[in-house]
Design goal:
With 370 residues, the protein is of the alpha+beta class. The chain has seven helices and 17 strands. A seven-stranded mixed sheet has the order 1-10-9-8-11-12-13, with helices on both faces. Strands 7-14-4-16 form a four-stranded antiparallel sheet. A four-stranded antiparallel sheet has the order 6-5-15-17. Helix 2 packs antiparallel against helix 3 (203-211), helix 2 runs parallel beside helix 7 and helix 4 (221-232) runs parallel beside helix 5.
Amino acid sequence: MERFGWKANSLPIRPGLPQSSFSSHRRQQAGPYPHPTLPGVTNGRLLVEFDLNRQTCRKVQRWIEVATRLSIWVLAVVLPIQLLSGQSEKNQEFKLVVDVELVGILVTVTTPEGALISDLKENAFEVYEDGMRQEIAYFGKESDQPLRLSLLFDSSISIARELRTQQEAAISFLQKVIRPRDRVSVFQVNDEVEQLVRFSSRLDGIIQAIRSIKPRGGTSLYDAIFLSAEELAPVRGRKVIVVISDGTDTTSETRLNQALRMAVDSEAVVYALIVQPIKSEPGRNLGGEHAMVFIAEKTGGRFFKIDSEAEARRSFERISDELRTQYYLGYYPKSSPLSPGLRRIQVKVNNPSYLVRAREGYYSDRKKVP
């Protein structure tokens, strides 16, 4: 089980930003394999002795010289061609990545009563960017796209009593949702952000990691959202972050707007399960709860308020239902890539009574906020 950790009070910071990538987990490199003690083995080379006459030795020597010169000529002519060809292919791939950028949107459609709509065709959708209609270049349903899911468990002391309930509800959710081609990451969030599982489909290892989480310390919640979204950013397709927390952040170096910006840039949808260990509002951190609601709504996700084990399981079931009925749309923006800033996205369907939920936009410059 791989572990990656960041202490909130020692997180390396770019100007105004958290660490931009996971700290490398160095593995001790094994040294050179020892050579077996065999006759004729010296410094790893096998010395073979032949009993040949002098004339035969000279013939062998001449053949070796000819073969060596031929090999050098082949390398001199062919290798530069291969290198140039490889360089050309790399340049071509680089241009494709930089110059043409597909904007992906995960879309949920419901009736006003909340029933999920799962049978719409591509021609039922319209996508607008800053008021300009876009051509849909890719359309797929849930079954067409592998899922990349990050689970963020708040394991701080503030929700210690509720932690075991959330763990078991999450395990039941994964057992229903995850298919062999899907991948799950698991993060433990206290005063450190620790990645227990990275992009795995092995449910036994995922379940073991979830049950290993123990309560301690404070909460670096915004750090966790930033880092999990940053890991998802290079991945294409459906990307979902599920946050299980009371919303209280006590030890993050990341600010709320930075965490939101990274989530938006990564195209991840955030679902927030807001644990309420204290039932009365005067005793709860309402500001933290509102922050979770804000991130979920801006990314096209949902929030759920959890005050019992039954409610936790129902909330995970609703998320599971949505993940099975969502649509994935992709388009190449018609607007100029030279104009940086926030691009507003609006998705419409041909039935005006339906409700559409999707992320509200993206930042065309892809720069991190200060």
